[in-house]
Every structure is written in C-alpha cells, then in structure tokens.
Design goal:
By secondary structure, the chain is an all-alpha fold. It has six helices and two strands; from the N terminus they run ββαααααα. The chain is elongated and about 70 Å long.
C-alpha cells in the first residue's frame, strides 16, 4: 500500500495565476482558452445550440453561455443573431440557399434533396420570391 500524500503535495508550488485561464500578471488569456472560445463563437454564429457547442468542445453549457455573453458585451459580431429563435434563422438561410440554387439552374427536386426538405416547400419559396412556378 502506498503512503497517503498530503493534499498540498499533489500540486507544484506555483502561484495562482499559473493555473488560471486568465494570467493575472500578464493580463492575457491563455492561447488554448482563446482558441476554444473562438471555436465556440464560430459554431454559435453557424447557428449551433449551446448544448451542441458544449458537446463538441467537451465543455460546460454554462461556459458556452458565458463566452457568448462576454462576446456580446465586447461587440463581437459572431455573438449577434438577427432573431432569437433558431427556426427563423434556419428558414432565412434556407430561403437564401434556394435563391442561390435557382440561380445555378437546379430543379426544385434537386434543391429539396440538397436541403433535406420537402419539394413542395421549395416550390412555395420559389413562388414567394417570384423566381419560379410551382410544378
């Protein structure tokens, strides 16, 4: 049986700021934390949910929420979404994709398959935009 070490013997004798993600002496964020925060904000901008970001980066959901809140306070554009509801944002992106695909000459069936939506929805969006007729 190994002898039990005292709790203070497990950690090297370094000052607190050496273990902190925010270096108090240098006033700079650790590079690893900065990369992780940037990846989280990029995913948030791409409409990923807090839970999905936390799962992908193996961090807490609370940490992701804090990253986004701090980015909003600092004016980072990646933290701003025009709508609060993800569904509205996805619908807006789908409309934009449908317009781009129509410009490329794709059929409604091809568009529906690429976007993983119903053909009828593509036809409705084309009719709304005035770029095509429902067939």
């Amino acid at each position: 049986m190994r002898p039990v070490k005292h709790r203070s013997e497990h950690r090297a004798a370094l000052p607190f700021h050496a273990y902190s993600s925010f270096n108090k002496k240098g006033g700079m964020v650790d590079r690893r934390v900065e990369r992780q925060r940037n990846r989280a904000l990029d995913m948030y901008q791409e409409l990923a949910t807090y839970e999905k970001i936390a799962e992908c980066l193996d961090i807490s959901v609370t940490t992701v929420v804090q990253y986004v809140a701090r980015a909003r306070q600092k004016g980072d554009v990646r933290a701003n979404r025009p709508f609060k509801h993800r569904g509205r944002l996805l619908a807006l992106q789908r409309r934009k994709s449908i317009k781009e695909m129509k410009a490329l000459g794709m059929s409604p069936r091809e568009m529906a398959k690429a976007l993983n939506i119903n053909v009828r929805l593509v036809q409705i969006r084309l009719k709304e935009a005035g770029n095509g007729t429902a067939k």
